[in-house]
């Protein structure tokens, strides 16, 4: 696909000039942006014990993987928020089940001609 696009680009730009070759190489290498992930650093010595707890994405200040929100939110406040959220969604689900009209009549009622076949089924004419 990139070869066809570079061929079209070279025809538009006027032959096999420098601009056409650079456009062709840019289309082949992700439009000039490079690979999606940077180079991996291979460790040459043993890792520390807590190396899996640090998120090092190449910035000067690596951050911990586990957020520390304990000083700002208490244990019982977090429990209250959790129970409140789960209670809200549970009540919403129960309301949807209680108010479900389609489950009371799972099929369309049959409609017969001639006054719903009243005479044919033994009713008075």
TrEMBL record:
<dbReference type="InterPro" id="IPR038863">
    <property type="entry name" value="Put_Complex_I_su8"/>
</dbReference>
<keyword id="KW-0472">Membrane</keyword>
<protein>
    <recommendedName>
        <fullName>NADH dehydrogenase [ubiquinone] 1 beta subcomplex subunit 8, mitochondrial</fullName>
    </recommendedName>
</protein>
<keyword id="KW-0812">Transmembrane</keyword>
<feature type="transmembrane region" description="Helical">
    <location>
        <begin position="78"/>
        <end position="98"/>
    </location>
</feature>
<keyword id="KW-1133">Transmembrane helix</keyword>
